């Protein structure tokens, strides 16, 4: 076998090792099946009862506040809604913030043009003034008309016009980003929750919409243990909770992350080169 000259082997093995080094990545969260998690109305219970569970499973989610009354209480219900500091903290912890308007009106179709603009456009401006990065909008009470929708489309990257209670809606991967339909998660049983996830795969997902995460009871109030059980089920069955931002890949990659990854790859490649050269030098002696 005189054809196998050491010089050829060195290059073949080097190329082989370099290909392995360049293509190796940590096991990515993207390999899990994505489920979009949306939290409406900025209930403070989401911050205290849902956020720790999301962080435990490394999930992201989109929180949709309306602008007024943060830190002042809404309708005399002092302290039921998150403060600005809490909303900003959500973003700093990797969660996404969207808008659900300025005042969460009962019926936006009954508003004047000026008030519609305040709800749709000024709410985004106000959130951004607080340093929040806003991509999405969800309609208060699922009420809209063509005029409102056209303003929303001009202002936001995506929007959620409709949510259904007790009814699962699948969202195809290539769905129109302004026709997204959510599934309101209420006080359903785990068997019903599992049925919601049927058909959720690489091509379809579901938008699970939560309101209060609290043990107070009520139609759209999710008990804390039940919420935890649902997140645990997702995690243990190969799903991952994601924000719309992460689902659509809207955020630019953090420069620090890619630099770090690049440095790591160069280091691995250098170690492999030095090791290989060493082995062949020793073998040649
Ligand atoms: Zn709402």
Structure at a glance:
This protein has helices at residues 6-23, 44-56, 84-92, 113-129, 146-155, 190-196, 224-236, 244-248, 255-284; strands at 33-40, 62-64, 96-99, 134-138, 158-160, 162-165, 170-172, 181-184, 204-210, 239-242. The protein is α/β, with parallel strands linked by helices and 285 residues long.
Write the SSE topology.
Layout: H1 6-23, E1 33-40, H2 44-56, E2 62-64, H3 84-92, E3 96-99, H4 113-129, E4 134-138, H5 146-155, E5 158-160, E6 162-165, E7 170-172, E8 181-184, H6 190-196, E9 204-210, H7 224-236, E10 239-242, H8 244-248, H9 255-284
Parallel strand pairs: 1-2, 1-9, 1-10, 2-3, 3-4, 4-5, 6-8, 8-9
Antiparallel strand pairs: 7-9
N→C terminal distance: 19 Å
CATH class: Alpha Beta
The helical percent reads: 40-55%
Rg, rounded, reads 25 Å
Q: Kindly report the name of the CATH homologous superfamily.
A: Glycoside hydrolase/deacetylase
Kindly give the count of domains: 1
CATH architecture: Alpha-Beta Barrel
